[in-house]
Design goal:
The structure is a homodimer of 286-residue chains.
Chain A lengths: L17 H6 L2 E4 L2 E6 L4 E2 L2 E2 L1 H15 L4 E9 L6 E12 L4 E10 L5 E12 L43 E5 L16 E8 L7 H7 L6 H4 L8 E8 L8 E6 L3 E2 L2 E9 L5 E10 L4
Antiparallel strand pairs in A: 1-2, 2-6, 3-4, 5-8, 5-11, 6-7, 7-8, 9-10, 10-12, 11-15, 12-14, 13-14, 14-15
Pfam family, one (chains A, B): 4HBT_3C
Protein name (chains A, B): Thioesterase family protein
C-alpha cells in the first residue's frame, strides 16, 4: 500500500456514520421506502448525484435478495431537493447469483404532485461469493502521498463551488490536476484524488457509489467553468473495498457537442480496482 | 481518413438493408411493438446482444419525441431466441433537448407465459442539434489498413464460434489482436477491428449499438475461451457517424472475480469518436 492518510483518532463504525444516517431508508410498504434527503451532501444547492445513487442503491439492497450493486445505471430526470422523498422499487428478476431491480426516487412539487427525480436499473449480487482472482495487470493511478495533496481546507476555496458536502468528505486532490484552481487548467481531462468519509467511516459498496461522483468535474481542467449536470451514471462495483482511503482517478476522452463522459476508477488501500464508472454529462459552454 | 475498405459495388440504402429489415418494429398499440427476432444475428445459437439493443433502440426512437439514443443502458435478464417478441416502452420524461424512456423485450416461454429478456433505460436527443465542436485530442486507434486485417472468410474459422452474424458483418480484425486464433493470446485485454454491415449499409446511431458488441470477446486475448455473457451494456452515441467503415477498439482493464468490463470506442471515417460503450460480462473460467 502506498503512503496514505493515517486513520483519524476516532473512527466511525459503518452504522453510526453521517453517510449511513443520511442514506437510511425507512420501509413504508413492500418495496417502497421513505427517505429524508439531507442538505449535508449539496454542492451549490444541488444534491450530489453520487449521494442520491447511494440512497437508491440502499433501497435496492433491501428490496432485492442480493446485497451488493454489481452494476447500477441511473438516469437523472429532474433536480432533487433536500427534504422528504420516496423510493419505489420493483424486482425485475431474481436468479441464483444475480438479481435485477429498478428503483425511482420521487419528490412532491409545490402543488403536492409527485415528480420523478431519478430512475435506476441495477443488477445485484454478493461480492463475498466471488473468487478472489485478478487476471489483469492494471495499475493504480500515480498520485502523490495524501500529505502532498490538497483539499478545500488547505487554501482559499481551491475546490470552487463546494458546499456542505466538503465537510463530509476527506478529499485531497492531486496537485497535478489542480491547475484550474490556480487559473491554469492543464487542458487534460484528468482529475485524481484521495477520497474518504470525513468521519472516518470505512468504504463499502454503497460509499463507492458516492466516490465516483465526488471530485470536481474534469471539465475544469479542460478550461471550462460552470455546471456539468449528469445525464446518466453507471457504476460497476467489482470488489468489496478494504478499509482505508480510496484513490479515485477520473478521465475524459471526449468533450464534444456539448457533452462529455467522465470515467472513474476507484482503487482501495489493498491496490484493488474496486469500482469503475462512466457518466454522460452536459457541459454548459461559455 | 486512413486507408479503408473500398465501397462494395452495390451499396444498400439504409431502408433496404438486412439490418433495417431485421430490426423493424411494428406498432401494435401506443408504445407497444411487435418484432420477429431474426436468426441471422446469432452467435452459437445466442442472439447477439448488440442486435437486440438495436431493436429496443429502434422502438424507443419511435416512442420518444427525440430520434437518437444519447445514452442507453441494457440489463440482459434471460436468453433471447429467434422468433416473435414484443417490446413495451414507457415514456419516463420528455424535455426540450432530452427525453427518457424505458423499454422491455418479452418472449413467450413453452407454456405461453411472457418472459422478460432485456430491460433498457435510455435518454434520447437529436444529434443534429448538437454543436460540431470537439475540444479533446483523443486519437483513433492504431489499426492497420483493412487489407491487412482478417475476417472469418480469410481463414479456417479464425473467429471461433461465429455463426450467422458473420455473414451480415464486414468484420476485419487487427492481426495484433488475433493471437488467440493461433493459440497464442497476447495476454492483453484488447480487440480491434474494422466494422461495417456486409450489404454496405452506412452506419447510423442504431447500427452503432450493434458495432460495440460485435467483436470477439477480449477474454480470448486474455487466454480464456468459452462464453462471456453480457450482464449490462451501456452505450453513449456522441455523433452521427459519417458514411464508410468504422473502427472499433475494445479494452478490458479488469478481469477479476469472474467478471470483466469491455470498453468500446467507435470511430468513423471522418476520425470522429462517435460512440463509447462499457459492458459488464461474466467469464466462465476454466
Amino acid at each position: 500500500m502506498p503512503e496514505a492518510a493515517s486513520a483519524p483518532a476516532v473512527r466511525a463504525t459503518i452504522g453510526a456514520s453521517e453517510f449511513d444516517r443520511d442514506t437510511a431508508v425507512t420501509p413504508r410498504a413492500p418495496g417502497v421506502y421513505d427517505i429524508d434527503l439531507s442538505a449535508g451532501w449539496t454542492i451549490i444547492n444541488a444534491v450530489n448525484g453520487g449521494y442520491l445513487l447511494a440512497v437508491l442503491g440502499r433501497a435496492l439492497a433491501d428490496a432485492l435478495p442480493h446485497p451488493d450493486p454489481f452494476t447500477i445505471s441511473a438516469h437523472y430526470l429532474t433536480a432533487s431537493q433536500p427534504g422528504p422523498a420516496v423510493v419505489r422499487t420493483e424486482t425485475v428478476r431474481t436468479g441464483r447469483t444475480l438479481s435485477t431491480g429498478q428503483a425511482s426516487l420521487f419528490q412532491q412539487d409545490e402543488h403536492g404532485r409527485e415528480v420523478e427525480r431519478i430512475r435506476v436499473l441495477a443488477s445485484y449480487g454478493d461480492l463475498d461469493s466471488l473468487p478472489d482472482d485478478v487476471r489483469t495487470a492494471a495499475e493504480p493511478p500515480a498520485i502523490p502521498p495524501v500529505e502532498q495533496c490538497f483539499g478545500p481546507e488547505d487554501g482559499p476555496a481551491p475546490v470552487e463551488g463546494s458546499s456542505a458536502i466538503a465537510d463530509r468528505l476527506m478529499l485531497k486532490l492531486d496537485p497535478s490536476t489542480l491547475g484550474w484552481a490556480l487559473g491554469q487548467p492543464s487542458g487534460k481531462g484528468e482529475m485524481r484524488a484521495w477520497f474518504g468519509l470525513a468521519d472516518g467511516r470505512d468504504p463499502d459498496p454503497l460509499s463507492l457509489l458516492l466516490a465516483v461522483d465526488a471530485l470536481p468535474p474534469t471539465a475544469f481542467e479542460l478550461g471550462l467553468s460552470g455546471w456539468v449536470p449528469t445525464v446518466e451514471l453507471t457504476v460497476h462495483v467489482r470488489c468489496r473495498p478494504a478499509p482505508g482511503p480510496l484513490r479515485v482517478s477520473i478521465t475524459t476522452r471526449n468533450l464534444a457537442g456539448g457533452f462529455l463522459e467522465e470515467d472513474a476508477e476507484v482503487w482501495d488501500s489493498a491496490d484493488r480496482l474496486v469500482a469503475q464508472s462512466r457518466q454522460l454529462a452536459r457541459v454548459r459552454l461559455g
